[in-house]
Design brief:
Structural class: alpha+beta
Shape: globular
Number of domains: 1
Largest sheet: 8 strands, antiparallel
Helix content: 10-25%
Number of strands: 13
CATH topology: Umud Fragment, subunit A
CATH class: Mainly Beta
Strand content: 15-25%
Length: 251
């Protein structure tokens, strides 16, 4: 007589251990992705309008450019090119993340004449640029100027810049990049604080995964205010979301 095998009973402890293992696996994968592959980033200022707006939330690809090590010669990483939008550690205060567009790469000779950027003697095509004011700022709109420093300019950069100007053009050294905001008249960028070292570059924005209207001009500072903002965002998610920008590719 054939006796069917008894079903194996899973104990509560076994189920609990399996659930914990699954949860830990998910956490490990999430930490790996956040650490090495992508990172969330929020646009805090108007310097990249109208390409990126205050309230845009980005996913940043941290692998696209490599890390500057031996793997850069093995993996098919991209080169940092003129026109790329990058997220980087602010050279003056590396605790802060900035997002700007690469205008000059190592070896370029850069100058601005009446707001127009010239690279290696040729005008740069910039359909993404936004202008707000007439050309009346002698430092901002006609760069580089070695005769007068700008208000708010970093002192170390002023001294360094003067040594790198030849025939009215700024020579970008190896391992460094010159970046500017698309909102060209309202952007604190390389004109005011200098180059971005290669090692400061975090990655390139991929997509705007969420965009929210600026419903409160005062960012939360205390824990209570942050909780209020979070609760308000959840309760009014559909009203405050810019649906025409959500899931838009960044370029």
């Amino acid at each position: 007589m054939h006796v069917p095998p008894r079903p194996i009973r899973r104990s509560f402890a076994t189920d609990l251990i399996g659930s914990i293992q699954s949860l830990l696996g998910t956490v490990v994968i999430a930490v790996f992705v956040i650490t090495f592959i992508v990172q969330a980033f929020q646009i805090p200022s108007e310097s990249m309008e109208n390409t990126l707006l205050v309230g845009d939330y980005l996913l940043v690809n941290k692998l696209c450019y490599g890390g500057g090590g031996v793997w850069d010669y093995v993996m098919p990483y991209q080169k940092i090119r003129r026109g790329d939008i990058i997220v980087f550690l602010y050279p003056v205060d590396p605790k802060q993340h900035f997002v700007k567009r690469v205008i000059g790469v190592p070896g370029d000779r850069l100058r601005m004449v009446n707001k127009k950027v010239w690279i290696n003697g040729k005008p740069l095509d910039e359909p993404y640029v936004r202008y707000l004011e007439p050309a009346d700022n002698v430092f901002r709109d006609d760069f580089p100027r070695v005769d007068i420093p700008a208000i708010g300019m970093e002192g170390k950069w002023w001294l360094q810049m003067r040594k790198l100007v030849d025939d009215g053009q700024l020579i970008i050294p190896q391992g460094h990049y010159f970046v500017m905001g698309d909102n060209r008249d309202d952007s604190q960028d390389s004109r005011y604080w200098g180059f971005v070292p290669r090692e400061n570059i975090v990655g390139r924005p991929l997509v705007i995964y969420w965009s929210v209207r600026d419903w409160d001009q005062n960012p939360p500072s205390s824990f209570g205010e942050r909780m209020y903002h979070a609760a308000y965002s959840v309760a009014h998610f559909f009203q405050i979301t810019r649906w025409n920008r959500t899931l838009r590719l960044v370029h």
